[in-house]
């Protein structure tokens, strides 16, 4: 991997490893209310290094050229996906709602030398991804799980045959419900993720049409 990408990821993962107090602060901010993205504006809540490596290798194996991510946070997973897109000659489109995260993630993506490959759209993914042009080869859902269903409705017609959907935190209730719903959604086949935390599903070929 490009040393700029490795150095940036090493630094960002070290920072993300110190997330516990920020996550605790996020829950304190929400104080009995439904947890909102703004409550977690300082928390990285990112994938770990092993997940990043797995995600990059998956994207490379698929030869994914059009990669879409929901939930950029501070940019860690977007950088892993960007590293894959550099290898496949592809592009990554990612989305983030929280303005402070957008600014920082863009800085981190540039630091990794991937700003020509990764585009970060600021705002609500339900709007920012509405005009995204397909065919999408790889979709990574790592945002707020109540948006997964509507987002899939929005993007399904733009998916390539054989497109892969990866869902992080699949062992948490909201995401688990969404993943279970894929069993009865036409065209989808659930596969084996690398761990209970990560679900993988394939659209089209091999699935129910
Ligand atoms: C779990 S974090 C993403 C972590 C990131 N994928 C990583 O591994 O570095 C989820 C992110 O989704 C963002 N988010 C939540 N709802 C959103 C929405 N409607 N549109 C865009 N981003 C949203 C949150 O602000 C949060 O930063």
Topology readout:
Layout lengths: L2 H14 L3 H11 L18 H14 L3 E5 L5 H13 L2 E6 L2 H13 L6 E5 L2 H4 L7 E6 L6 H8 L3 E9 L5 H9 L6 E3 L8 E5 L6
Bound molecules: S-adenosylmethionine (SAM).
The site of S-adenosylmethionine has 20 residues, from helix 4 and strand 2.
Give a quick set of tags describing it.
alpha/beta; Rossmann fold; seven-stranded mixed β-sheet; binds S-adenosylmethionine
Give a quick summary of the entry.
This protein is of the alpha/beta class and 209 residues long. The protein has 8 helices and 7 strands; from the N terminus they run αααβαβαβαβαβαββ. It is globular and about 45 Å long.
Distance between the termini: 38 Å
Listing every helix as H and every strand as E from the N terminus to the C terminus, the arrangement reads HHHEHEHEHEHEHEE
Helix content estimate:
40-55%
CATH architecture: 3-Layer(aba) Sandwich
The number of distinct helices, counting runs of at least 4 residues, comes to 8
Total domains: 1
CATH topology: Rossmann fold
Provide the spatial order of strands within the biggest beta sheet: 3-2-1-4-5-7-6
Q: Tell me the total number of β-strands.
A: 7
What value does the Rg take, in angstroms? 16 Å
* Whole-number mean pLDDT: 96
Largest sheet: 7 strands, mixed
